[in-house]
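[Automated response] Your request has been received and processed.

Submitted sequence:
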Amino acid sequence: MSYHSILGKYFGHASLRHGQKIVIEKVLEAKNTLAILPTGGGKSLCYQLPAVSLGGLTLVISPLIALMRDQVDALTEKGIIAARLDSSVDEETKEKIYNQITSGVLTLLYLSPEKLAEPSVVKLLRSVAISLVAIDEAHCISEWGHSFRPSYIRLPRLVKSLKPRSILALTATASPQVAQGIRKAFAILKRDQVQGSFYRENLHYDVFIGTATEKRDRMLDLLHQAQRVPAIVYATKRGDVEMLAAFLKQSGINARAYHAGMPAVARAEVQDGFVGHQFDVICATIAFGMGVDMPDVRSVVHYHPPKSPEGWLQESGRAGRDGKPSHCELLLNQNDQFMLDGMEQAKKPSRDAILAILQNIFSQGPRAIISRYHLSTLNDISSELLDILLVRLELEGWVKQDGASWMWCHLVPLRWDDSARQRLLTGFPKKQQVVFAQMLASRQRTNLLELAEGSVLKMVKMVNQLRELEAGGEVKLKMSHSLIHLHIQKEPANLRELTDDVLGVFHQHTEHNRERIAEVFKMALSRRCLAVSLAGYFGEKLQSPCGHCVSCLKKSRSRELCSEEVAEVTLDELGQLQALIAEKRAALSSPERLARFLCGIYSPAMMRYRLYAHTSWGMLERLPYDDVLAYTRAQLV
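Generated structure:
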């Protein structure tokens, strides 16, 4: 069948969009291709249609489990054989998928990057012909992008080893710098980069400058207008999300809150309720939106400004996917800039934290086992920055990832009689039989790292034996708390010099992110057409201004940000601070940690020790982070 016939038969479309057509034709010609198509630009069809047309197996690599699930369900309904492999798939389903791969009946296989990195998966996929590998969210490969994922760093090598007919990298937002990095990683020629327009005529951009009270009033007025809901209201902090949802409810607007601090079940219920039009407004952090395809969002309101032009474009792009006029409004003031800037500076780890992480890695001998969770929470460094540190060590030849395992194992017997247990253990060495018998008798999880006496080789051998035990069908392994195995390729001559090098990298990242925040405010305050400014950031030149944004309509707005005066530290707060220091909490032992706590900035240590429940949490969040940090440095001398 021609791809035109497939388009109508399976996907119900009479024609393709211009960008889609070019991408699909390049893929069918076996050209490695980069498709930069904005949110709502129909990226999924760019690999689904060629998958059916080419036959054979197409791999789709995506970090979004919800998207994978939804697309597999939709394709199955269309009569296309598709499956997904991710952490939520059980053994029985996985075996069925493996059989579909080897028998050649599977058309599309969706994988997470982590799943593709598993040796057994790579070995299986190398044994079959791969027609196409599509890498969704390809910007995640760049540590200078807005959503870096370390698992993407290894994708070029893994994908190349599969010898696919062609590679398709897809993203909704990529600056020229990020696009160049993607092309280099996947051997894509510049002429095979297809960039759709970032301009969407139906989106009307507006900017409002005012105090917090004025911003709330403006948001309320906007949402009361005709054709302004369903709407998404984005805020930076979880507390603000809940406050805004409560404010809107009290004002007669049916709203709900959504953020990462909510239980997964509650988040899913709120998301499904919004998509199902059970309420009009969802107030959310940027945790909401990825992989959610809702065509009739009429407004996106940024109660707090986005942290980058990429975020502004991507989050605003969730409005008006049905092509109808939709409103995107940015509410801001000087305090917002202080807050976003402070949050970026607060993320930067201290020198002591970096040194402690490096000492942990390089003190273990030729092989090291690390827990991302422990390194992150004990040193109060975000998992994002910890990942950048580990990737930098790997790229610069200090370490090489050499497998993964689990810290905890709960060995659950499916039969409890002694004879069944004894039969299970037969064939294992006597020492191992004793260990496994103790694990079976215990109703608690066992620390595998302690059991292996910290040895990587012992742990690998033990896990393999446990897998053998489980294969007998009478016990179940429940693993938790992932570990990374590292092979130390060279030892640093001076750990403190390496610490300074890593600190310099993080300083670059902090400054890079602060520049992107500044760019958002620069665009918002400029008299230049907002659509022209946003498109220009991504290297696109619009032929003419949009004609309907705040600048084109010449709406009156100040070119200077208003700011609200905040009260200085009171004597009562000073007393609370001194009492807090007297508690001598390890999680608040440095000026940086204490400043994050006082500013109410969620961080790994705050989460691990539940410090957000402390009565003094966020006590000084009204002040800029820099001011609070200077204060804590003076107090902890």
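Summary generated for your ticket: The chain has 27 helices and 17 strands. The first helix runs from residue 3 to 11.
If you did not submit this request, please reply to this message.
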